[in-house]
Inverse folding.
């Protein structure tokens, strides 16, 4: 992701709303602590740093996933990055059960180019993106094909997690390459 945001790593930002204290630690996790004297007050993890949310080829937020279990799934949180005068956790909500939404204000995202994906990529991945742009312009691929290529580029860059099927496919490819000759297989 954007290198200038890594200066937030190792820091945590708190927000108190009614009886809950939320803590957001960029590139680490999000926690919630019930501020009551009940014997079983909730204190837990709402998500662990997972991947970027990318829309319109721009970083728009961070996904914190695999938090404490909640009914049949794990808690997860989307952190929206918005321009602000100081680094602070400004708003917290729970739009759907066990899925939280945080708004994090920071001056680090105020410049219009501060969250562009393209400059964060290696030269090789930028070339792949350029080729995809040309294919789209020449109408040799559809919008859907273009979005798939970009998703693959973002996964290869480590900005998005690959789907489980892709990971299995990668493992199978690795195994099949290890035994590409009978001699290698016999060994």
């Amino acid at each position: 992701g954007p290198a200038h945001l890594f200066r937030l790593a190792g820091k945590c930002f708190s927000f108190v709303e009614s009886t809950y204290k939320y803590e957001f630690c960029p590139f680490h996790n999000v926690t919630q602590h019930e501020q009551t004297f009940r014997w079983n007050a909730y204190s837990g993890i709402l998500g662990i740093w997972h991947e970027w949310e990318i829309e319109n080829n721009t970083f728009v937020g961070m996904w914190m996933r695999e938090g404490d279990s909640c009914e049949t799934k794990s808690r997860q949180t989307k952190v929206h990055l918005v321009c602000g005068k100081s680094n602070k956790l400004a708003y917290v909500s729970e739009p759907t059960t066990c899925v939280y939404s945080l708004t994090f204000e920071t001056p680090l995202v105020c410049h219009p180019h501060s969250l562009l994906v393209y400059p964060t990529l290696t030269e090789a991945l930028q070339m792949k993106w350029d080729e995809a742009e040309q294919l789209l312009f020449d109408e040799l691929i559809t919008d859907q094909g273009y979005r798939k290529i970009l998703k693959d580029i973002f996964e290869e860059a480590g900005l998005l997690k690959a789907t489980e099927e892709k990971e299995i496919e990668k493992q199978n490819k690795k195994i099949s390459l290890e035994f590409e000759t009978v001699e290698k297989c016999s060994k």
